[in-house]
From TrEMBL:
<keyword id="KW-1015">Disulfide bond</keyword>
<feature type="domain" description="PA14">
    <location>
        <begin position="350"/>
        <end position="515"/>
    </location>
</feature>
<dbReference type="InterPro" id="IPR011874">
    <property type="entry name" value="Fibro_Slime"/>
</dbReference>
<comment type="similarity">
    <text>Belongs to the prespore-cell-inducing factor family.</text>
</comment>
<dbReference type="Pfam" id="PF13948">
    <property type="entry name" value="DUF4215"/>
</dbReference>
<dbReference type="InterPro" id="IPR037524">
    <property type="entry name" value="PA14/GLEYA"/>
</dbReference>
<dbReference type="InterPro" id="IPR011936">
    <property type="entry name" value="Myxo_disulph_rpt"/>
</dbReference>
<keyword id="KW-0732">Signal</keyword>
<dbReference type="GO" id="GO:0005576">
    <property type="term" value="C:extracellular region"/>
</dbReference>
<keyword id="KW-0677">Repeat</keyword>
<dbReference type="Pfam" id="PF07691">
    <property type="entry name" value="PA14"/>
</dbReference>
<dbReference type="InterPro" id="IPR051154">
    <property type="entry name" value="Prespore-cell_inducing_factor"/>
</dbReference>
<dbReference type="InterPro" id="IPR011658">
    <property type="entry name" value="PA14_dom"/>
</dbReference>
<feature type="compositionally biased region" description="Acidic residues">
    <location>
        <begin position="24"/>
        <end position="36"/>
    </location>
</feature>
<keyword id="KW-0325">Glycoprotein</keyword>
<protein>
    <submittedName>
        <fullName>Multiple EGF-like-domain protein 3</fullName>
    </submittedName>
</protein>
<feature type="region of interest" description="Disordered">
    <location>
        <begin position="23"/>
        <end position="62"/>
    </location>
</feature>
Length: 615
């Protein structure tokens, strides 16, 4: 190039560079649109492309698009929480999300109430010793027919205490009437302390609470809270009766009291309503008979001399005659027994307070016998005990010990008795007594009837409404009536007690079918009880079709049902699925299989017995 041409070449080059820099409509590349961030600031003119919206970075993850990015724990194709994959694409507790874009699946765990896989049961908790162990294995002596519901005893008589069973005495089949009933529940009068061993009779009065006894205070007194028959009683003082849970008397503040201290019947040992029950206070349906505890004390007549270690007969028995009122005070003593009122005063038939106090207290002068007196219900609703020849201690007491001869008519005379009863005052109660000898009736601790002395049969009636103020009675409250009697002469003995309209209320409990709680009185309760597969039938008294009923329900996914479904080789699993076996296509050499081709052709190289055919 000549020196003259150089300036001209430089000028052309600069012009080309200027044209390139001033191109009014270059083809923009991605991200080069100057108006990309201001789409709404102007309109596109005809023939001119509109500005493009911003586009996300192709490398940014989007939760909910069904594609699991490296920063996401899951992506099920939506942004809903509660389905296993949260709105932020994290896996929620109790779920697994193995496949992106598809629904997550719950993780089966022992204690979730759903029996899956190798679980033999699942009662919706992780406790053992309730039939379904902490690792969801059925425990010995139990059955667990419904998932998510409490297990129950397999059978009474199997030697294992389970469910609501209280005892197992080794009877197979269970018999009852020996302390452990045919339903494996305690029977009164027995203690069953060792599983598989016979129950033993208890001894009320030894001061030790045994078996079904709610109390045992070791004495023969009534009205002290524990009767001589080891039954709980109310305790009354100064017009107020306090009750103990289990005495059957419901006072304000007690949710229930069904007359016992046993669990599982609706009213607990602490008088609270148990789960699965409803309890109502109701007037007791009049029973056919009213059996009341009675305490007898047998005395020897004063005409009998001392013999050996036995002192002379009691001075107040077989010693004098004549009707005599005023022997006892108008109020009971603090021990709820009559107070002698003739101290220092002439008495025709008694001989001082020390002698009288022995009438209703245990002493060397008497022998105590505890029994029941039974009042029969009449057609008009009254309860009556009537015995014109009242000799309850014949062949008992001193006569049985051969320390007193039988008397007139071959009977045992000379005894006292005490009977107590508690009632809710309503205003129409009437008590009538006819008999001999002494009879005193106290109501609310006050003397209501005085038939004292040694005499033939006398009668007396107490109409409580007519004497309510005198006796301190208020409607709706609980009061005590006590009948003290004494037979003191060997001529005759009669006793007729009539109680009219002496009613009481007691708690009646019943199971609630449909609350999902299985009680002793229900076969099942799943909360629905519609009889569907794996559920409970209406009424809660029977199970619906289920795995374990012995019928294979293939439509429910059962492959087998051969109770007890314990699994094992060639068996049926607890979930009613076939276990490892000849024919499953897997050779189990440990079970003697030489081959397993998974078919039922017996003539091919592998027989139906999973043995190699050599021919």
């Amino acid at each position: 190039m000549t020196r003259e041409a150089m300036p001209r070449f430089v000028s052309v080059l600069l012009a080309l560079l200027a044209l390139t820099a001033c191109d009014p409509d270059p083809d923009p590349g991605p991200g080069d649109d100057p108006d990309a961030g201001d789409v709404g600031s102007h309109d596109a003119s005809p023939g001119i492309d509109a500005p493009l919206p911003p586009r996300p970075d192709a490398g940014s993850p989007v939760c909910g698009d069904g594609v699991k990015a490296s920063s996401e724990a899951c992506d099920d194709g939506d942004v809903d929480s509660g389905d296993g994959c949260s709105a932020t694409c994290t896996v929620e507790d109790g779920y697994a999300c193995p496949t992106p874009g598809e629904d997550c699946v719950p993780i089966a765990t022992c204690g979730d109430g759903v029996r899956t896989g190798g679980e033999g049961c699942d009662d919706r908790n992780s406790d053992s010793s309730d039939g379904c162990s902490a690792d969801c294995v059925i425990e010995a002596g139990w059955v667990c027919p419904i998932d998510g519901v409490a297990c129950r005893a397999a059978a009474c008589g199997d030697g294992i205490i389970a469910g609501f069973e209280e005892c197992e005495d080794g009877d197979a089949p269970p018999e009852g009437d020996d302390g452990c009933s045919a339903d494996c529940l305690f029977e009164d009068g027995y203690a069953c302390e060792t599983v598989g061993a016979p129950c033993v009779e208890t001894e009320c009065g030894n001061g030790m609470v045994e078996g079904t006894e709610p109390c045992d205070d070791g004495d023969n007194d009534t009205g002290d809270g524990c009767s001589p028959l080891c039954e709980l009683e109310p305790v009354c003082s100064d017009g107020v009766c306090t009750t103990a849970c289990g005495d059957g008397v419901v006072l304000p503040g007690e949710p229930c009291d069904d007359g016992n201290t046993r669990a599982g019947d609706g009213c607990s040992p602490t008088c609270t309503i148990e789960d699965g029950f409803t309890c109502e206070l109701t007037e007791i349906e009049p029973p056919d008979e009213l059996a009341l505890a009675v305490v007898y004390r047998d005395f020897r007549g004063y005409d009998l001399p001392a013999t050996g270690s036995v002192p002379r007969g009691h001075v107040d028995f077989q010693n004098a005659n004549g009707t005599e009122t005023g022997i006892v005070a108008a109020m009971l003593g603090t021990d709820r027994l009559p107070v002698y009122a003739k101290e220092g005063v002439s008495s025709a038939t008694t001989h001082g307070r020390p002698a009288f106090d022995q009438w209703y207290h245990d002493s060397s002068m008497s022998m105590t016998v505890v029994d029941r007196i039974v009042l029969a219900r009449q057609a008009d609703g009254r309860y009556v005990f009537d015995d014109a020849d009242f000799f309850p201690l014949d062949t008992r007491g001193w006569v049985d010990a051969e320390l007193e001869p039988v008397r007139n008519g071959g009977h045992n005379f000379s005894f006292t008795s005490v009977v107590r009863y508690w009632f809710e005052y309503g205003g129409d109660e009437v008590l009538t007594f006819r008999g001999d000898d002494d009879v005193w009736v106290f109501i609310n601790g006050r003397l209501a009837l005085d038939l004292g002395g040694v005499h033939g049969p006398l009668s007396g009636t107490v109409t409580l409404s007519a004497r309510a103020s005198e006796l301190g009675l208020v409607a709706g409250r609980i009061y005590e009536v006590v009948v003290f009697q004494a037979e003191r002469h060997t001529s005759q003995s009669s006793y007729r007690l009539t109680l009219s309209n002496f009613t009481s209320s007691r708690t009646e409990c019943a199971p609630i079918c449909g609350d999902g709680i299985v009680t002793r009185f229900e076969a099942c309760d799943d909360g629905v009880n519609d009889g569907s597969y794996g559920g409970c039938a209406p009424g809660c008294m029977a199970l619906g079709p289920r795995c374990g009923d012995g019928a294979t329900q293939s439509e429910q996914g059962e492959q087998c049902d051969d109770p007890p479904n314990v699994g094992g080789y060639d068996g049926c699993s607890p979930a009613c699925q076939l276990t490892e076996r000849c024919g499953d296509g897997v050779r189990q050499a440990e079970h003697g299989e030489q081959c397993d081709d998974g078919n039922d052709v017996d003539t091919d190289t592998c027989s139906n017995a999973c043995l190699t055919n050599l021919g």
